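Sequence, please.
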């Protein structure tokens, strides 16, 4: 019996595989490329969305045939330069402009009187001859050239 002799074990190592460091670098690179492609797609689609203006109008019916629309203002009140109306899909006959505004029948609405540059908050207009259950749409025109529905109701 031999004392102090150790048996040698030989193992075969596979040296053809990619090292773990290179594998991690490749996974990170693929993740970064995928994130860039997805971000380019998402941000490219969001480029066509327009800003929504924050303004409001209310409507009331003082009698059976008249409707009063009152501009209530809002965050973008200073940029509202015109208000147009339709009642039941038709252009109503507007009679008296609100204070600080001028009626324009060609555009079916009212606009600020110079030197004012925006519609005054609290401006009201009477729309006569609006039958019961009339669909009323009030559209605002803004300084950036956009239009937006600011009231859509049936009264």
């Amino acid at each position: 019996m031999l004392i102090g002799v150790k048996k040698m074990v030989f193992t075969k190592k596979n040296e053809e595989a990619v090292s773990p460091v290179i594998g991690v670098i490749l996974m990170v690179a693929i993740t970064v490329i995928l994130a860039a492609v997805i971000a380019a797609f998402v941000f490219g689609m969001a480029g066509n969305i327009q800003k929504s203006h924050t303004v409001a109008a209310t409507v009331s019916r003082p009698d059976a045939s008249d409707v009063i629309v009152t501009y209530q203002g809002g965050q973008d009140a200073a940029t509202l330069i015109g208000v147009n109306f339709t009642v039941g899909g038709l252009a109503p006959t507007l009679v008296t402009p609100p204070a600080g505004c001028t009626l324009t029948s060609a555009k079916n609405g009212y606009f600020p009187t110079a030197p004012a540059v925006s519609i005054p908050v609290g401006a009201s207009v009477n729309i006569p001859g609006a039958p019961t259950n009339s669909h009323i749409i009030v559209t605002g025109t803004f300084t950036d050239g956009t239009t937006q529905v600011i009231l859509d109701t049936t009264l």
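The chain has two domains: 19-49, 56-154.
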